[in-house]
Amino acid sequence: MLDLLPQRIVCLTEETTEWLYMLGEEARIVGISGYTVRPRRARDEKPKVSAFLSAKIDKILALKPDCVFGFSDLQADIAALLIRAGVQVTVFNQRSVDEIFSVLYQVAAMVGQAEQGLQRLQQMRAQLDGIQKTAATFKRRPKVYFEEWDEPHISAIRWVSELIGIAGGDDCFPELAQMSMGKDRIIASGQTIVDRAPDIIIGSLCGKKFRPEKAAAREGWQGVPAVLNNQIFEIKSADILQPGPAALTDGVTQLHRIFQQWEATYA
To answer: Would you tell me which of 11, 94, 192, 223 could form a disulfide with 99, CB atoms 3.0–4.6 Å apart?
Structure first.
């Protein structure tokens, strides 16, 4: 019988690459994002054909993909170029935890792994439920400022804000988390962050390292509880800013561990 599933997939972002490897369908991948670090072996096995906002269109076309997976409106221009060249492109736009689950199921179904995908997603959901149940026993929940970028300050995207809640914290800027674009989550004045008095500060920057000591030394931040108690941490962007398996597993687990330690000491 003819295999009607895509045979040559290009993944323009990391989360679909990681998911296809988890499903045992990595042989279908012919190109990946240069930012891919999960799984590590993908960098050695697959050609790197894109950044996030740009892509090597000629190189992608030379791979003769029958399917390209992209993420978000920020890749709309790349998608348009590929579509005009006759390539099938599927661009997902997940922003919430539930939307991540939905997209991962869709991708699994597209490669003939709907049943395995569902089983894995049920395991991830059970893990989240377990974390949330433990967090419900906290005597006090920490106020959390999650920094997605430092200059200017950009606060947590929606799925990160939701994972903070599941892990036992309260996002200091829940109103901004509803904004899908980073430019709409800019906090113009650092004083606004100071005024919200976060108990914990977590940085996760795409493309550079977050340095807790530099955050602690920001002018006017010395009275912030997170600074006073040395509760400033980094979570690698690959673990939480990719809207896929990493955030639902490693990312939320790191958040929960930080919050548990704070609750045991300061609640």
So the answer is: 94
Q: What's the distance, Cα to Cα, between the start and end of the chain in Å?
A: 62
Interval 55-75: pLDDT, tens:
999 999 999 999 999 999 999
Q: Which two tokens stand for residue 142?
A: 């920490």
Dihedral sign, CA of 6, 29, 205, 140? positive
CA distance 4 to 73: 28
pTM (2 decimals)?
Answer: 0.96
- Between the CA of residue 89 and those of 6, 172, 201, 205, what are the distances in Å? 11, 37, 38, 28
Q: Pick the closest to residue 142 from 216, 203, 196, 200 (CA basis).
A: 200
Cite the DSSP H helix spans in the chain.
14-22, 41-45, 57-62, 76-84, 97-110, 114-135, 158-167, 174-177, 190-195, 212-216, 225-228, 237-240, 245-246, 252-266
pLDDT digits (tens, 9 = 90+) for 82-110: 999 999 999 999 999 999 999 999 999 99
Query: What phi, psi does 222 have (nearest 5°)?
Result: -65, -20
